[in-house]
């Protein structure tokens, strides 16, 4: 087949909205201080690593995993405080759960609505699932614009609204009363995405059954288990029963189930690392605000900090940090409200110190 014939087939059969997309870019691993992906920087201590490896050695890889992940669900119910009467479903990361929610309600003219700037995958997955996508700009200090959100609900009649709480990439937790009004006014589902719940002061999970249209989504990625790709969705059994029809069999593999069960048996280690990150977040925010050339550091209830540098400097600073062995996220260009902004994951004390030193050098270069 000629190159032109192949190109013609691609043009003819690939959906236009997919052709227009750019794939989500993940920088390749490198020998740098990696503070770009909101990961927990503390690995398992040696003794626990050995015990975890032993647990994995006992997994029968010639057999399919538990299709319902029964034991893991029970552990997660207890660890997360899932309300009695609520049901939960596990996904291969939050991304799979977002896709399943969209597929549940997708149809001609159906809309996904989110505030922006927000999690990039909301837009990508909406378009991948054949839905229209609409953003509502955040207000001052990245707070929800309640009037604009309510107007968008009336105008777009969205099938699903995604609200990251706290928000990524800004780090703030939206006003709770505003979210409550959005849930009441939304004609379809509202998914409160609590990926950073462990670092925040509030949650909608305890009230998930109080609203007929609310689902709460979480992940274990940010608390130290990013490599497992394990997310969970909680809501009324009526919604979850419909979603289960779309979930592919055996979506949570046996090694993930065994690893997550082991981690939840040793939850104290995860809790300690979360507490350490919260402490380091405060120290890093204070120090970052004193660096010459840093214009603004926004308060955060997540495990990262978003900050602004002088106009036109973000890309040069980002590249300067890479040249000095530190990788963070360049937000400049991703959304108009994020001009000149960068985002740094809270690392271990030594990593944070190296970042601050490299940032000071890059800004003074």
TrEMBL record:
Pfam families, alphabetically?
Aminotran_1_2
Q: Output the HAMAP family linked to this UniProt entry.
A: HisC_aminotrans_2
User: So, what pathway does this thing act in?
Assistant: Amino-acid biosynthesis; L-histidine biosynthesis; L-histidine from 5-phospho-alpha-D-ribose 1-diphosphate: step 7/9
Question: What is a biological process (GO) this protein takes part in?
Answer: L-histidine biosynthetic process
The domain of life for this entry's organism is: Bacteria
What GO terms are given for molecular function?
histidinol-phosphate transaminase activity; pyridoxal phosphate binding
The Aminotransferase class I/classII large domain covers: 31-359
Q: How does it assemble?
A: Homodimer.
Keywords for the protein's UniProt record, in alphabetical order: Amino-acid biosynthesis, Aminotransferase, Histidine biosynthesis, Pyridoxal phosphate, Transferase
Protein name, entry field: Histidinol-phosphate aminotransferase
Q: What is the lineage of its organism?
A: Bacteria, Pseudomonadati, Pseudomonadota, Gammaproteobacteria, Chromatiales
Family according to the record: Belongs to the class-II pyridoxal-phosphate-dependent aminotransferase family. Histidinol-phosphate aminotransferase subfamily.
CDD domains from the UniProt entry: AAT_like
